[in-house]
Structure formats: C-alpha cells, structure tokens
Design brief:
The structure holds 2 protein chains of 2 kinds. By secondary structure, chain A is mainly β. Chain A has no helices and 11 strands. In chain B, a hairpin with a 5-residue loop joins strand 5 and strand 6. Chain B starts with a strand and ends with a strand. The chains are: A mainly beta, B mainly beta.
Chain lengths: 111, 110
Amino acid sequence: DGGITQSPKYLFRKEGQNVTLSCEQNLNHDAMYWYRQDPGQGLRLIYYSQIVNDFQKGDIAEGYSVSREKKESFPLTVTSAQKNPTAFYLCASSTQDSEAFFGQGTRLTVV
Amino acid sequence: GDSVTQMEGPVTLSEEAFLTINCTYTATGYPSLFWYVQYPGEGLQLLLKATKADDKGSNKGFEATYRKETTSFHLEKGSVQVSDSAVYFCALRGYSTLTFGKGTMLLVSP
C-alpha cells in the first residue's frame, strides 16, 4: 500500500534533549512537509522540502531542524532550543501542484 | 501572503441537520482549494477538492463550490450523521506550500 508513515506515534522528551521524528513516504512525491498542531491553532508549517537535498523554513522553524537525503524520507529533529515542544506533529507529502497526503502524526510530550 | 479563514467552532448539530462551514481565502493567482477532515488522534484526510473557479468538489455527501468572486469555498452537507463528528480544515495550494485554516470542530448528536 502506498502511503506516508510517521513514527513513533507517541514520544516523550526530557528537558534539554534532542529528539528525531521519522517520516517516510512511498508515494514517489517530490515535496514533503512538517506541520505542528496545537489546540485552537490549526496547522503551522515548520519546514518543507520540494526536492532532495533542499529544504526551506516555514513559519515556525526556530528550534527545529530537518534533512532530506532521500526522496522517501524527511526526518524532523526537535532540538533543546525549542522551548515549548509539546504538540502533535504531522508530516505530509505531495506532488508539486496537488493536495497533500498526511501521516498519522506523532504526539510529542516533554516530561 | 496566502491565508485561509474559516468559521470558529464548535458547530453543534443534531443528526440529519444541514451543515455549512464557511471558508474564505486570500491568495495570489488561482489556487487549488481543499477540505480535509481530522478524527481524534489521527492525521488529516482529504475530503474534497476543487482546482478552478466554479468547480464543485464532492465526496461522501459533502460538497463545496470554488467561488472566485467571493473568494470562498464553503463546505455543505444536507444531512449530517454522528460519524461526521470531527475537525474540518479548509486549505489552499499556493506556489510552493499548502496553507490551512484553523479548523472547525463539528459535533453531531443523535
């Protein structure tokens, strides 16, 4: 089945730790995205990539980093510089001009 | 920049009632427009889309018409079911990314 897979579903981070969220797609999409979702805030764009080895900051990139070494993979690292990382993180992919397909999300909690 | 504004919720309806969720947008050019649905604890699923003015997207009894003159893409359903309870997002495809509204929660009671 073609789709987009995020892992893990739940993730706990201690203060000062970096954590990496995985996102893999087998839809052969060029573009991939990371969004953060907080209650009442909708979706906010963190980073996006339109092609391998290239990515751009979104609206709330501070405290996050990404890489795009393979077309299928777009991992997101939440660094210790992100002061309020508790949120629901959504990864998506698309062709250059179509709708996005979303993964099931990762819920990150700081403990 | 691009923006999407949708009505705040929650929208509370009884089963079989008529649903409208308003969505307006600001964008350069002629963006594609989408409605997504999100069930608790899950990702977003595409509900319907329209790619040009006057197009009507439809799926599972939901409909929305791309109105360029009013820059709107309102979601409608003639008779909602309890299983339609979810959060609905309006979105547009800009030059390089998608822009989403804040979402509208729909609660349908039996």
